[in-house]
Specification:
Blueprint lengths: L1 E6 L2 H11 L6 E6 L2 H5 L12 H11 L3 E4 L2 H5 L3 H6 L4 E2 L3 H8 L1 H11 L6 E4 L2 H11 L3 E5 L8 E4 L2 H11 L5 E4 L11 E3 L4 E3 L2
Parallel strand pairs: 1-2, 1-3, 3-4
Antiparallel strand pairs: 5-8, 6-7, 6-8, 9-10
Helix pairs in contact: 6-7, 8-9
Length: about 200
């Protein structure tokens, strides 16, 4: 099978190594990849992986049988959609479903509609709005950039000024979410789903 893996991080490296380790021989390409992936003998072409048209054209030209999308950014950009429209199997959600990862406000709305318990949250777009909400919720303060932020968008702090500074940093890039602080252990559950069947990973 001819497989294209999109991404350049450790996650994609692990996926590539897993594919190479299967009993069946696969032709694996990883774009843009990294030095470690290239050292495994895998082709790592330069490719704009957040452009749906660029990726779709590359896949069509090279005749891939499967595309595995690792990072959130190309999923949120909708890279999977034109591939599926062309009949190419894709591991990764389409643009609509990827909003669950790409927008914390969207995820909150879906949880509310589905009756999933979650902390109270309010969207703000400036410091004056933020100050009022922080005072309403009280410390510790939980401030989150709404969109993708490479792991830097969330701040939990008891320092009100630090919380306001975080709002000031991210508000120019879009809405900011201020949430009620929930104390307790965090548990992550992972599932595979195709829109019809849900299978737990563990």
């Amino acid at each position: 099978m001819k497989i294209l893996v999109l991404g350049s991080g450790a996650r994609e490296h692990a996926i590539v190594l897993s594919l190479l380790g299967e009993a069946v021989d696969h032709e694996v390409v990883c774009a843009p990849g990294n030095a470690g992936i290239a050292a495994s003998g895998v082709e790592t072409p330069a490719l704009d992986i957040v452009s749906p048209d660029v990726v779709a054209e590359f896949v069509q030209q090279r005749g891939f049988d499967l595309v595995i999308i690792g990072p959130e950014a190309p999923l949120v950009a909708g890279v999977a959609d034109p591939l599926r429209e062309r009949g190419v199997p894709v591991f990764g959600p389409g643009k609509a479903a990827a909003q669950l990862e790409g927008s914390k406000a969207f995820a909150k709305r879906i949880m509310a509609e589905a009756g999933v318990p979650t902390g109270r949250a309010t969207h703000v777009s400036n410091i004056s709005q933020a100050g009022a909400v922080l005072d309403e919720f009280g410390a510790p303060y939980v401030v989150k950039a709404d969109g993708l932020a490479a792991g830097k968008g969330v701040l939990v702090t008891s320092d009100r000024e630090a919380a306001l500074d975080h709002v000031a940093t991210w508000a120019p890039h879009g809405e900011v979410l201020i949430e009620e602080f929930l104390d307790g252990q965090e548990v992550s559950l992972f599932f595979f789903a195709d829109g019809h069947i849900v299978v737990p990973l563990s």
